[in-house]
Design a protein that fits this description.
With 142 residues, the protein is of the alpha/beta class. It has 5 helices and 6 strands. It has helices at 27-39, 70-73, 91-97, 99-108, 115-122; strands at residues 17-21, 55-59, 75-79, 86-90, 124-126, 140-141. The longest helix has 13 residues, at 27-39.
Length: 142
């Protein structure tokens, strides 16, 4: 009896909403778990060419943990395109002033670099505090 691999057809997947609490969770472990859920690799319906992931809501992004001395040593580089426009921003400053950007960038770098990856990233909602406006979607805790 031949075995058939079944693929999910586009538009047939019903995405769920998932809430992740980022308080005291290391940034890399958090981003890896979120990227898995956004891609849909946590479910048996995963299909590489179709959107099979869920929506992810991250709360308490300002309390995410940076292990070791990453808050002082690890730097984010930004370049304006002009001579002398290279800036080095420590992760500690990012955690204090731009925690949403810190989590979004960590997740973005773990997603595929394609059109589908950009759609997956749009399904990520990050909030600094414990409150979020998505109660109507009845999110499930991860």
């Amino acid at each position: 009896m031949p075995r058939q691999t079944t693929f999910l057809k586009a538009g047939t997947h019903e995405p769920k909403w998932v809430v992740v609490d980022a308080a005291n969770v290391p940034l890399g472990r958090l981003a890896a778990r979120i990227a898995t859920v956004l891609q849909g690799k946590h479910s048996p319906d995963w299909t590489p060419h179709a959107m099979s992931g869920d929506y992810v809501i991250v709360i308490n992004a300002s309390q995410v943990a940076l292990t070791g001395r990453k808050s002082e040593q690890k730097m984010r580089k930004t370049y304006s395109g002009h001579p002398g426009g290279l800036k080095h921003i420590p992760y500690g400053w990012m955690q204090e002033h731009r925690p949403i950007k810190l989590v979004e960038e960590a997740v973005r770098r773990m997603l595929p670099k394609s059109r589908l990856g950009r759609v997956m990233l749009s399904n990520l909602k990050v909030y600094e505090g414990a409150e979020h406006p998505h109660q109507a979607q009845q999110p499930v805790s991860l």
